[in-house]
Amino acid sequence: MPAGRVYPVHTDIVATTFWVGEIFDATASDGSQEISTYDSDWLASYGGCDGVVADGICETEQRTAANDYFPTAMTPLENPFYLDLPFDDLNNESAFRMRGEVVPWANDPGYAGRADDRTFSYMKNRWVQLTRAGVTCYGQIQDAGPGEYDDVGYVFGEDDGRPANARYNGAGMDVSPALNGCLGFARLNGDTDRLTWRFVDDEGVPDGPWKKLVTTSPVRL
């Protein structure tokens, strides 16, 4: 990895909240968080509903620093500080074709030469720095969305472009309940909170609750 790499900053981005086990539209191909674009059984891999189960439905919950923003009703097997971005480098044909050229770390050790490998993602487990109202937290990419899946101009662009997605108030990412709490979102499950984000390499991630349980699992088809 080239020393000192600094990634572009994306400002004033709407972020909505999602969680492992959520089903917000059972009729939509992307309406269930029991799976992710990188894990066909995300619910099991994570360890269950990332929230509380009420009447058989997996609901989100408020997270606090007192518990390091971890879920209160279950013990996760993977990092509860997760998010998505609208670039699905495995299942979206456009994103898959271009990933070797547009992903900044595509030629780094561990990534180089794998552009045609359908079992490997350049996005899964990558770290992202997120800042809201002077608070900075970190999370790992574990899914793709919202709404778009090859938004290369927004995700990797250097001019602070706007997300192509027009749904969910034009959201440019979803964040987990842990990140919702860590960043002090005004709403538990809304579409009005905004943040600033950028990619960050592993060595640029400081200690914090987001490093208590780092996800290293590969793609699970």
Low-confidence regions: none
Count the strands?
8
Helix content: 10-25%
Question: Helix tally?
Answer: 4
**What distance separates the N and C termini?**
28 Å
CATH class: Mainly Beta
Order of helices and strands: EHEEEHEEHEHE
Strand content: 15-25%
Observed structural traits:
single chain, 221 residues, alpha+beta, Barwin-like endoglucanases, six-stranded mixed barrel, two-stranded antiparallel sheet, 8 strands, globular
Describe the structure.
The strands form two sheets. A six-stranded mixed barrel has the order 1-7-4-6-5-8. It is of the alpha+beta class and 221 residues long. The chain has a single domain (10-211), classed as RlpA-like domain (Barwin-like endoglucanases, Beta Barrel), CATH 2.40.40.10. The chain has helices spanning 42-46, 93-102, 152-156, 177-182, and strands spanning 10-17, 52-54, 57-59, 82-85, 127-132, 135-144, 173-175, 194-200. β2 (52-54) and β3 (57-59) form a beta hairpin.
